[in-house]
């Protein structure tokens, strides 16, 4: 889960959940790559219609969402000089809006789960996250999702229970159907 600690130190390296409005997440990613700032945009295949023809394209799973791993000081400098449209996603705490920081271990598991191509992943937005019922905490053992921890639960639109990797308040990714032999219960 997200930590409620206030990020006040500008020199702490961490993952920030950020927004690139008007579907500029790929442009922001390109600029951050040029600046050698680590970032991640969850991607998936979607069917799009262009010139009255359907095509399958590799595109952002959730528009406007990008995760940036850096210090707050470096991000502020990049925003000021190169990427003015990049914005922090925030949450309310004590009457203040604080940037959402994702713990490293959660982010690594999310990246591992969402970068497996060829698997039918389902992405849920913040609005859909509220509808999730708490299930049982599990760890996947073996296969492409080896070591990924999440919640084993029923998801609307899926016939069987699935493992859900949840970045609280931001996004969730529902993994493809996993054989029960590859699931270990956590306490």
UniProtKB/TrEMBL annotation:
Residues 14-110 form the NusG-like N-terminal domain. Pfam families: NusG (PF02357). Gene3D superfamilies: NusG, N-terminal domain. GO terms for biological process: DNA-templated transcription elongation. The keyword Nucleotide-binding does not apply. Keywords: Transcription. It comes from the Bacteria. The keyword Repeat does not apply. This is UpxY family transcription antiterminator. It comes from Candidatus Bacteroides avicola.
């Amino acid at each position: 889960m997200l930590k409620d600690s206030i990020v006040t130190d500008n020199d702490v390296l961490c993952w920030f959940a950020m927004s690139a409005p008007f579907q500029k997440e790929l442009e922001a990613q390109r600029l951050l790559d040029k600046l050698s700032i680590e970032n991640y945009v969850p991607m998936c295949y979607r069917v799009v219609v262009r010139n009255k023809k359907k095509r399958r394209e590799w595109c952002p799973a959730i528009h406007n969402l990008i995760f940036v791993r850096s210090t707050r000081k470096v991000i502020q400098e990049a925003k000021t000089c190169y990427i003015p449209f990049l914005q922090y996603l925030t949450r309310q705490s004590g009457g203040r809006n604080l940037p959402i920081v994702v713990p490293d271990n959660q982010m690594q598991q999310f990246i591992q789960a969402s970068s497996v191509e060829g698997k039918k992943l389902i992405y849920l937005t913040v609005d859909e996250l509220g509808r999730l019922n708490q299930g049982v905490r599990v760890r996947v053992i073996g296969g492409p999702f080896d070591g990924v921890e999440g919640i084993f639960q029923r998801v609307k639109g899926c016939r069987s229970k699935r493992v859900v990797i949840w970045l609280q308040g931001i996004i969730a990714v529902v993994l493809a159907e996993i054989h029960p032999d590859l699931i270990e219960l956590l306490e």
